[in-house]
Design goal:
binds 2-amino-3-ketobutyric acid; 319 residues; Rossmann fold; alpha/beta; three-stranded parallel beta sheet; 14 strands; single chain; binds nicotinamide-adenine-dinucleotide
């Protein structure tokens, strides 16, 4: 039986990974932490939860010992758009938070999952079907912290034999917990605006292609890679994982198949546009498919149907 600690468990990814892990391993075997406790009350109440800063090694170590933790999911981070507003804070949380998790994993012999991002690539990276191993010279602070994080996780594996694993997530789309200040957040906002106002003003240009993934696939990736046979993992900490690539114009067209009078206009945010322009249009994810059997299940059409159905129900007050 696994005993799992999630750091940053109330965010967009953490809240859904926590639900799945509690279903799989039992509520008492999945300890949640976050720097806040003002959201997701049902999740907090479903098992052990502690307010802890991800840079507080002592408090996290005590939890690892108390709950006999053997696996850590480290999800606390400052995302790209917020990081560009406060780069020093982003560096502090993203790097010192990860370093704290790595040290705890080393000392207490835990496995560690940490996500990287398409943000780990930059303007000199090949833009289409970006290979697994390629140029990584990101121009955002978020990207700089993600590349450094990938390298640190590799270092802890090679030097100390820590079982570090991770994926480079694309923009994640979901409806349970709002996104935390990323460049890809438009692709979630658009569904709410479509249902509420039949109109969305987009902060990226209509022809900006980015890789995206629906939350159920993102959760599958996090669980599957931690269950994978370690002898087959060559890349370990930064597997490209892809599901779909689209631009706002295309997403709007799919939304119109459900809401025919939906319209979209554009007021471009130059900071977010510059970040998006520096990221790949689409990733190639052969290594993840071969090394641990990665396979997405949602494309743009299926995800759009599900998002619209789920948000519509929620707006009507149904579960
Ligand atoms: P999020 O912003 O929604 O959640 C992050 C959580 O971390 C929040 O609940 C926040 O309260 C918590 N946190 C922030 N600072 C903290 C601190 N000092 N101590 C403890 N907790 C703190 O982010 P997310 O979307 O859930 O992302 C999780 C991970 O996945 C991050 O590493 C992110 O870079 C990566 N990722 C996310 C996406 C995406 O589209 N959501 C894509 C690629 C990679
Ligand atoms: C962001 O836009 O910052 C995130 C990501 C792709 O890492 N959604």
């Amino acid at each position: 039986m696994k005993n799992i600690l999630i750091i940053g468990s109330l965010g967009q990814l953490g809240s859904e990974i926590a639900i799945r892990l509690r279903q799989l391993y039992g509520n008492d075997h999945v300890v949640l932490t976050d720097i806040r406790s003002d959201t997701n009350q049902e999740l907090i109440a479903s098992g052990p939860f502690c307010v802890v800063d991800c840079r507080d090694g002592k408090a996290l170590s005590d939890l690892v010992v108390k709950h006999k933790i053997d696996t850590i999911y480290h999800l606390a981070a400052i995302l790209s758009a917020t990081a560009e507003k406060n780069p020093l804070q982003a560096w502090d949380v993203n790097m010192n938070g990860l370093m704290t998790a790595l040290e705890i994993a080393r000392i207490h012999k835990c496995a560690l999952f940490t996500p990287s991002s398409i943000g780990a690539f930059g303007p000199t990276t090949p833009k289409k079907f970006t290979p697994q191993d390629t140029i990584q010279r990101p121009t955002s602070m978020y990207g700089v912290s993600k590349v450094a994080g990938e390298l640190l996780c590799d270092y802890y594996h090679h030097k100390y034999d820590v079982d570090t694993r991770g994926v480079r997530y694309p923009g994640i789309i979901s409806s349970l917990t709002p996104p935390g200040g990323g460049t890809t957040d438009y692709a979630i906002e658009i569904y709410y605006a479509a249902l509420r106002d039949h109109h969305y003003e987009c902060f990226l240009q209509g022809d900006t292609y980015l890789d995206m993934m629906y939350m159920p696939d993102a959760v599958n990736a996090a669980v599957q890679i931690m269950e994978a046979d370690p002898s087959k993992l060559r890349h370990r900490n930064a597997f490209n994982v892809a599901a779909m690539s689209f631009c706002p114009e295309e997403q709007a067209a799919y939304i119109r198949t459900h809401i025919p009078n939906f319209t979209i206009s554009y007021r471009v945010d130059p900071v977010k546009q510059a970040i998006a322009d520096s990221w790949p249009d689409s990733l190639e994810d052969y290594a993840a498919r071969v090394e641990w059997g990665w396979k997405p299940t949602y494309d743009l059409a299926r995800m759009t149907s599900d998002m619209i159905q789920t948000i519509r129900k929620r707006m009507k007050g149904e579960k």
